[in-house]
């Protein structure tokens, strides 16, 4: 399945998951298990299984490059917590774990609803920046909390457990309330106010300034490279869409069958029978989806041409024929014509086409001239010797008889284009050239030695 189609199917699967989640949460009841809860639990289990298989197939590094990967991981954790508590409450017949399971599942709404926006608006610059900005925010928050633990320890030791210092520090950090500064003199008259004021400056003013600077820098970098960022996200989606594992052949929730039925079956039946069962199951389950994809692609990717080639004027509408219904859905008696162009031509045809290309046309003309001249010479020799050839052998028609009367020269032209012909003769010529060059060098060396041996007086006399 092509990545584009798989991406569309994944969006459709998430919409179904969100719809079942909303229906189930509207009628949630810890005392009984309704049809919506069972449908949601089964479909969500298959969806989480598909995400887990994606991580195993491509690795966490590729999976984490998606804009919504962190949302999927959070919902998977929430779902597993809900499922464990719900099963535990059912086994113990206790309503408290069941109610806790529903409360935990309610935490999935802040994850599922924004995730749909990430899917539908994946190319929006806001969503492209949001993921990187959240990563920077979490990193800075963790580092700040780590550094400010020293202030917390100092205040705890000074107050000796008499005040709720964590609440006061959180309120100061987010700028909500300054009660901690007011009551800081209760655990020390001098050191308490110093610690609280220092924490307020560092935790609120400095932290917010650094955070705004980091997020502004991240946003500006992504906006300046928005085209490359969008191309990278699409490449990640394409890479994730190319899935070769057998479990991806089953759409959720049918991949549960592959996990609990087919995986144990491969250890029971032979490899041949397992392959037959696997292929038959995949075809039966995916038949409606494949038919829908075929109809949509025929209508969207192969639309009827409403304009003539190379013209901006619309074509005249044709009269409706008897088979108009089949023509609309591209199911006609000529539907297999396109497959003709996908079959490789015979070898002889390929060779003839290669001979007639633009690069070898001048060679063919020279070969025609050579053969014509050789034919004339041989005819004149036969006339001089008085030999006659009354019986003529009929010539086999060739494909080039319509162009030139010299017969089939394919073998001769192939000999011309063959690079291996004449290699031995070329090697012999190069060897002879090297020997000649060596003799010339020897002769020049002797002449130079003779000139050097002469005295200046002899050179003047010779001149």
Automatic annotation (TrEMBL):
Residues 370-406 are annotated as: Disordered. The chain crosses the membrane at residues 7-26, 38-60, 67-85, 137-159, 190-215, 247-265. InterPro entries: TRP_calcium_channel, YVC1_C. Residues 370-392 have a biased composition (Polar residues). Keywords: Membrane, Transmembrane, Transmembrane helix. Residues 14-301 form the Calcium channel YVC1-like C-terminal transmembrane domain. It holds the Pfam family YVC1_C. PANTHER family: NONSELECTIVE CATION CHANNEL PROTEIN. This is Calcium channel YVC1-like C-terminal transmembrane domain-containing protein. It comes from Monosporascus ibericus. The lineage of its organism: Eukaryota, Fungi, Dikarya, Ascomycota, Pezizomycotina.
